[in-house]
Design goal:
296 residues; alpha/beta; 2 domains; 4-stranded mixed beta sheet; 3-stranded antiparallel beta sheet; 40% helix; transferase; Antirestriction_ArdC; MPTase-PolyVal; nucleotidyltransferase
Length: 296
């Protein structure tokens, strides 16, 4: 009997569905797994993992209690002078690429592929240099008032942020404005900036930015967009040291689950779109920018 081909998309999707049904989506795990800070998973050469790999490695680190940011293959560990401890289990990550293949007309055609490979956390490896055992710093204590550094970051994004007593945070697509209640109405400033990170991720989807709303506009688009915004807020939160705010409503979670069960590539697309949103925000915020665009 022929061995069935390993389906990367189905494998990853099944794992994430199981984690959501168990009560903890993998993108939330860095924030709910303990009292330490959170970090982006890093390759052996200190480059950040991206997209779906971030979610998979966050989930594995949380489940296994790993605190180092660095991940590497068995061979990479050996080349760096380390040795994976006997009995340690690897984590799955995926690699995207293209191969060239000649079609029926004799023309070269580039065909995309996605394959799985295995990596270990530095906590599973002995003998590495100290720099590989990176630990996240403690969470920032932002108190209850505005934080000048974060205020400047969100202003540099270019988003117009409107504040009123209306007790709801949302992105108004028609007016292209983010509405936020006053920071004083939140229990802590973390909640305010975590919520703002979510709405800012929505803001990137407008036609004059990443055109996400235009590209994903079928009947399932609402659940997909909320998934993008939550994953994006988690990724952005790591970059700026702010814990995101999570929507716990059953309707959102059920929508995510249905989207993944209907399409094994949905979570890959959501993670990719979230990554694009965070890249867009951080690139904008890293530039010199004019004074804050804040509406009274």
């Amino acid at each position: 009997m022929a061995k069935s081909k390993f389906d990367v998309y189905q494998h990853v999707t099944n794992e994430i569905i199981a984690q959501i049904e168990a009560g903890t989506p993998p993108w939330r795990k860095p924030w709910t797994g303990g009292g330490g800070g959170a970090h982006m998973p890093l390759r052996f050469n200190a480059k950040e993992y991206r997209g779906i790999n971030v979610l998979m490695l966050w989930a594995t680190a949380s489940a296994k209690g790993y605190t180092s940011a660095r991940w590497m293959t068995y061979r990479q560990a050996q080349e760096l002078g380390g040795q994976v401890r006997k009995g340690e289990k690897s984590a799955t990550v995926v690699k995207y690429g293209t191969i060239e293949k000649e079609n029926e007309d004799g023309d070269e055609q580039r065909i995309p592929y996605c394959r799985a490979y295995r990596v270990f956390n530095a906590d599973q490896i002995e003998g590495l240099a100290d720099e590989f055992y990176i630990r996240p710093g403690p969470p920032r204590d932002l108190g209850t008032g505005p934080d000048p550094e974060l205020e400047a970051f969100f202003a540099r994004s270019g988003a117009t942020i409107e504040t009123s007593d209306q007790p709801r945070a949302f992105y108004d697509l028609r007016r292209d404005v983010i509405h936020m209640p006053p920071i004083a109405t939140f229990h802590a400033a973390q909640g305010y900036y975590g919520t703002l990170a979510h709405e800012l991720t929505h803001w990137t989807g407008a036609d004059k930015r990443l055109e996400r709303f235009k590209r994903f506009n079928d009947r399932k688009a609402y659940a997909f967009e909320e998934l993008v915004a939550e994953i994006g807020a988690c990724m952005l939160g790591v970059q700026i040291g702010v814990e995101p705010e999570f929507d716990q409503s059953a309707a959102y979670v059920e929508g995510w689950l249905q989207a993944m069960k209907d399409d094994k590539r949905a979570i890959f697309r959501a993670a990719s779109e979230a990554q694009k949103a965070v890249d867009y925000i951080t690139e904008k915020a890293s530039r010199e920018a004019p004074a804050a665009q804040v509406a009274a």
